[in-house]
Amino acid sequence: MEEHDMQTTRSKELADEYLRLGGKRLAKIDDNIVKIRHWEDDTPEAEAFWQKNIEPLDERRRVEVETHLPTINDR
Questions:
Q1: What's the pLDDT tens digit per position in 9-53?
Q2: Which residues, listed in sequence order, are joined to residue 29 by a DSSP beta bridge?
Q3: CA angle at residue 11 from 32 to 45, to 5 degrees?
Q4: pTM of the model
Q5: Residue-wise burial string across 5-22, b where 16 or more C-beta atoms lie within 10 A, e elsewhere
Q6: Dist CA 52 CA 29 (whole Å)
Q7: Residue 69: strand, helix, or coil
Q8: Out of the domains of life, which is the source (predicted)?
Q9: Bridge partners (DSSP) listed for residue 37
Q10: Strand 33-37 versus strand 26-30 pairing type
């Protein structure tokens, strides 16, 4: 498996675990610019997971995770 594929898989796994724990952040993707919207509070477990595993990532990897979150258009 290529490095990019492994990173994408890892990014998907992180996003899925965050959502499984009750994460509520939504992605806003516009012209390939990804921003996060956070209107509802995460569960304490999801917030702790985000702070420990996603927030510390460099910007490129964090954006990869964020693209696997539901988007505001999915609402």
A1: 899 999 999 999 999 999 998 887 898 888 899 999 999 999 999
A2: 34
A3: 115
A4: 0.85
A5: eeebeebeebbeebbebe
A6: 24
A7: coil
A8: Bacteria
A9: 26
A10: antiparallel
